[in-house]
Amino acid sequence: MKNQIKIIMTFMMLAVFITGCNSDLNTDNSISGKAEISSAKVEKIEVFHFHGNHQCASCIAVGSLAEETVNTYFADEVKSGKIIFGHINGELPENNDLVAKYGATGSSLWIGTYTKDGQFKAEQNVNVWYKINNKEEYMDYLKGVIEQKLSGE
Which neighbouring-strand residues pair with 96? Predict the structure, then answer.
């Protein structure tokens, strides 16, 4: 029974990836600012949960757990402005530029890294979807990813 649940969850996650739980947010598929980050010091990190008007339980979990992770482990960085977290509704016209900058399509979690020498790199993290049923594992994983970004890796 436990294996059947895992198989069903895997197929559900694949469906989420394929459909994004909603329509595409970025219809021109342009992705800008994807330069590699050099060894320069990181100036700022943005952690954005992109979503649409209608979210499934998995989409909500990805965003809620990401927000809790950032607020739990990086409160000082949030307070100083070094880390910014946001839930971004990609279907709202006022978010079109941000959606295009990140290349977001559907519900997704993105991390944007800015360096002091002006470089920017945006990366979608799909691994969080596999961890939404285990809060501790999700938070430990995302904490590690953010720590790597802060160190310039």
Answer: none
Q: What value does the CA radius of gyration of the chain take, rounded to a whole number of Å?
A: 16
Residue ranges of domains in the chain, CATH in brackets: 2-150 (3.40.30.10)
pLDDT in tens, 140-153: 999 999 999 998 87
Q: For the segment 56-104, what is each residue's pLDDT rounded down to a tens digit?
A: 999 999 999 999 999 999 999 999 999 999 999 999 999 999 999 999 9
Distance from C-alpha of 69 to C-alpha of 140, rounded to nearest angstrom: 8
User: Running DSSP on this structure, what letter comes out for residue 129?
Assistant: G
Q: Are 34 and 122 in contact (CB under 8 A)?
A: yes
In whole angstroms, what is the distance from residue 11 CA to residue 143 CA? 26
Return the closest-CA partner of residue 106 out of 40, 55, 64, 140: 55
Among the listed residues 11, 64, 69, 10, the one whose alpha carbon sits nearest the alpha carbon of residue 45:
69
Cα–Cα distance, 119 to 56 (Å, whole number): 34
Q: Are 100 and 28 in contact (CB under 8 A)?
A: yes
